Amino acid sequence: MVGLLVRGAIPGLRRVHAQVPVYAKAWDEANALALAATGPLWVALGDSTAQGIGAPSPDQGYVGQVHRVLEERTGQAWRVLNLSKSGGRMADVLAGQLPRLEALEQTPALVTCAVGANDIVRRTPLAQAEREMREIMARLPAGSVIGNLPQGLGPTRISALNHLIESEAVGAGLRVANVYAHTGPPWEGKFAEDRFHPGVLGYAHWAAAFTEALDLDPR
């Protein structure tokens, strides 16, 4: 049965994987426009979920969905600088994404970060993962929103990392987007064709976690 499920997912996996360079290019182009524009700036850090991989277009991932809510509720034209990377682990946020954030000449009005799923899947040693998560939280600007890890992966390791995030975020001056509470069964309709990344409905649940952390009513 497992073998049949894996074989059945392969065509979808290929289609979703093909989105990676396309979505990265789209965000690079959008980032250039955002930096040249005016208005409050949101910097998004993380992995393929911030890229929107699995959704039909980059702006239908959770970043795009939250962006629309931000503009609707605040009446402002928010700019999004998406520094995330498909396949990114916490080490990638530390080595590449945070330095780019820290080098910005403009001060962001909002910074969000959701990362760690790839560390679970690729089995980064737990002690290393906890150390890197603490460093990420220490380097994020005060008031940033950090997402905890979703349901559906290794429960023991997720529990350890989520406990760390939830117990130490306030002391680090951060808000927590409770992605874990907004994900989980029933799974029907929530996943993309690869049966791993969220689809539009799945990303709506991610977006709800972030809008809740930002005290926005997503309606």
Q: How would you describe the overall organization of this protein?
A:
This protein is α/β, with parallel strands linked by helices. It has a single domain, classed as SGNH hydrolase (Rossmann fold). Helices cover 53% and strands 10% of the residues. It has helices at residues 2-17, 19-36, 48-51, 62-74, 90-102, 117-121, 126-139, 155-168, 179-182, 200-213; strands spanning 41-46, 79-82, 110-114, 145-147, 175-177. A 5-stranded parallel beta sheet has the order 2-1-3-4-5. Helix 8 links the parallel strand 4 (145-147) and strand 5 (175-177). The radius of gyration is 17 Å and the shape is globular.
Under CATH, the topology can be stated as: Rossmann fold
Can you identify the CATH class? Alpha Beta
Compute the number of strand runs.
Answer: 5
Our estimate of the beta-strand percent is 5-15%
Provide the descriptors you would attach to this structure in a database record:
219 residues, alpha/beta, Rossmann fold, 5-stranded parallel beta sheet, 5 strands, 10% strand
Summed up:
The chain has 219 residues and is α/β, with parallel strands linked by helices. It has helices at 2-17, 19-36, 48-51, 62-74, 90-102, 117-121, 126-139, 155-168, 179-182, 200-213, and strands spanning 41-46, 79-82, 110-114, 145-147, 175-177. A five-stranded parallel β-sheet has the order 2-1-3-4-5.
Q: Would you spell out the secondary-structure blueprint of this structure?
A:
Elements (H helix, E strand, L loop, with lengths): L1 H16 L1 H18 L4 E6 L1 H4 L10 H13 L4 E4 L7 H13 L7 E5 L2 H5 L4 H14 L5 E3 L7 H14 L6 E3 L1 H4 L17 H14 L6
Parallel strand pairs: 1-2, 1-3, 3-4, 4-5
Helix pairs in contact: 4-10, 5-7, 7-8
